[in-house]
Task: inverse folding
């Protein structure tokens, strides 16, 4: 076995070392050796290790017991299924109440999977505090789920009842309607109900490790009830789902009365049923429709449903929706956020770990094309290599159902290869939003955007849509190929003079820093090797992760 490791690559030695540190002289190493499996690679994005024997691969999640499933078309033979339970027992000690986030983080640092950062360790203190409080917190049952129809019926009964009740009986509650009584009981119950643990709001610059820390926290919660009472989702996708559920609730009660007062509580209850620990990545408010419902939405999630929120953001709470329309109506939400979540800043961490990944993994120069010559080279790549000389393309329309149902035109597509091509005018100058871009990412594994102009503050709407597009495609691990009229690198696409002065009043300037970082990461070899997670592929979900 020692000779085998001496011949292995550095990555395999690191993977085996990671296994040995957690299972020194344990059953996992003996079982894998006896079955002929060797470590192939470590996939930190999913907290997993991949073991290989011949043409077969097995993927094992480090923080959960058992095999997480076969990769691609490979599967473990029936007689090797004992490896799953053996590895699970060997790793059981890692999945206990006593394995802290600090230990998990340090093990990743020891194997050079992450870079040690003192600011990240400070942030882990709050996440570890929350983890321990969750493990000792007795999760109460969910309140009865309201519906617009029952809410309207209750309201109607209360109105008719109150007219026939005497003022005397009303004072003592004898004449109260069932609807009013139910609300009184619920109000008293909410006061007596133990307060849930306080959440965490991580904010900092691009590449500071916010999402990595949240993922580390999320993956560590494998004990009941949190293994099924958790959900992790990008904030834009979360809000798209909220609007979609509100639209469906309205349609279900088209003939009802006072529907506007009943829809949101029903949506809040349905959201809580997906998991009361809600992890939101890239929390950012730029849309007035989102801003105006956030206070009611999160008041219901926090106070009525007992949810706990962990969020990452490029903005401090006090800077959310800065310069937005009717911001005065949004300010109460900021107070509510600070009350419900412990604020943790990573702004003092000046290292962009995405850039480190880019440097260490290398770049794919063929993903970026510039000017007239670049357009010709891209045309050749698209038709001859991506599509193929015997394949054809066509225009088509996708259907988005978030909020009102609408169509998204795709000018050039090949559904067999799952490739789409847009001009910048098609995808960013038209009235499209985050929900539309998410649908594109769910249908196509490769997206080409060409003729991207150099943008300024005069084109903020186009800038905002481009930011949303990159976030949505990144969410599904879509491979992105860009052609620019002039920009030779991501930082040249959006040109802002006196950036420090204008950034205070324009969220887009801050947000575009994240877009630059993501574009750089999306050109790295490690990103290109990620599996596309669009809806046409089988998703491996943990808990209620989207």
Result:
């Amino acid at each position: 076995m020692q000779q085998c490791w001496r011949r292995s690559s550095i990555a395999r030695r690191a993977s085996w070392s990671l296994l040995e540190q957690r299972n020194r002289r344990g059953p996992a190493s003996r079982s894998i050796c006896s079955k002929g499996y060797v470590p192939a690679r470590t996939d930190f994005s999913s907290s997993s290790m991949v073991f290989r024997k011949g043409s077969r691969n097995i993927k094992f999640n480090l923080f959960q017991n058992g095999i997480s499933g076969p990769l691609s078309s490979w599967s473990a033979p029936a007689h090797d299924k004992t490896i799953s339970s053996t590895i699970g027992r060997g790793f059981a000690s890692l999945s206990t109440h006593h394995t802290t986030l600090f230990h998990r983080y340090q093990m990743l640092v020891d194997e050079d999977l992450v870079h040690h950062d003192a600011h990240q360790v400070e942030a882990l203190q709050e996440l570890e505090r929350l983890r321990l409080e969750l493990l000792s917190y007795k999760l109460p049952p969910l309140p009865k789920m309201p519906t617009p129809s029952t809410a309207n019926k209750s309201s109607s009964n209360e109105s008719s009842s109150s007219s026939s009740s005497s003022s005397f009986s009303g004072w003592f509650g004898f004449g109260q309607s069932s609807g009013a009584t139910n609300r009184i009981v619920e109000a008293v119950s909410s006061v007596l109900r133990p307060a849930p643990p306080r959440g965490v709001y991580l904010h900092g610059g691009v590449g500071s490790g916010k999402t990595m820390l949240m993922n580390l926290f999320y993956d560590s919660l494998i004990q009941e009830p949190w293994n099924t009472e958790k959900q992790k989702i990008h904030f834009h996708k979360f809000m798209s789902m909220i609007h979609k559920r509100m639209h469906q609730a309205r349609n279900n009660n088209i003939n009802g009365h006072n529907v506007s007062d009943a829809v949101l509580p029903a949506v809040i209850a349905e959201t809580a049923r997906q998991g009361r620990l809600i992890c939101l990545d890239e929390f950012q408010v730029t849309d007035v429709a989102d801003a105006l419902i956030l206070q009611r939405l999160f008041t219901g999630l926090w106070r009525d449903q007992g949810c706990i929120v962990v969020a990452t953001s490029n903005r401090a709470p006090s800077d959310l929706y800065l310069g937005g329309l009717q911001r005065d109506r949004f300010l109460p939400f900021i107070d509510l956020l600070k009350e419900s979540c412990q604020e943790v800043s990573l702004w003092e961490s000046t290292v962009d770990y995405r850039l480190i990944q880019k440097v260490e993994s290398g770049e794919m120069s063929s993903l970026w094309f510039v000017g007239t010559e670049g357009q010709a080279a891209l045309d050749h790549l698209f038709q001859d290599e991506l599509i193929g000389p015997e394949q054809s393309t066509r225009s088509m329309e996708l259907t988005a159902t978030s909020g009102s149902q609408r169509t998204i035109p795709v000018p050039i597509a090949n559904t067999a290869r799952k490739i789409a091509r847009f001009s910048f005018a098609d995808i960013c100058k038209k009235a499209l939003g985050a929900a539309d871009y998410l649908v594109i990412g769910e249908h196509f594994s490769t997206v080409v955007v060409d003729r991207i102009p150099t943008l300024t503050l005069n084109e903020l709407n186009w800038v905002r849509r481009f930011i949303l597009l990159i976030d949505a495609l990144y969410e599904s691990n879509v491979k992105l190929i860009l052609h620019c009229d002039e920009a030779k690198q991501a930082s040249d696409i959006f040109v802002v003079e006196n950036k420090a002065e204008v950034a205070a009043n324009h969220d887009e300037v801050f947000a575009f820093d994240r877009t630059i970082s993501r574009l750089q990461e999306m050109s790295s070899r490690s990103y290109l090797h990620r599996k596309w997670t669009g809806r046409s592929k089988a998703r491996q979900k943990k808990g209620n992760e989207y």
